[in-house]
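Consider this:
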Amino acid sequence: MNTLLIFIGLFLLGLGVYAFFRQRTRLAEGTVAIGIVTDLIPVRADGEFVVTRGEEGMKIEKKYLYRPEIRFKTHAGRTIDFIAPVATRPSRYAIGDEVEVLYNPENPNDVQINSFLHLWFATLMLVGFGLFVAGMGVLGRILQGG
């Protein structure tokens, strides 16, 4: 079992390293534009609830995260709408906010919000989980004596 954890961890770590270099290429080749948040798409957080306080007292409500929908124009004049893949609560953006985006000029649908969270979240998660899982496998082998 420990060996399996090590292999899974190394696989995740490898994916994280691949994502890092892919993202560096996207940053080097990308073009920056300014977009406008046109909507906030609610995404249900499965099985999670929040307690809200209001004039009517306390209520338990379903928990939602929010993904911004953004419209921007490429330097070639094409209008692109996209929904950011990372959802947050509370939303980091409001409808009407200006947001800097980074897009591939050869494929403008390949676009990301130009912020640390949106650019590096997946990479950091893969590297972090990879190190954790591989570390647990190594620790398990050490504790088993071999």
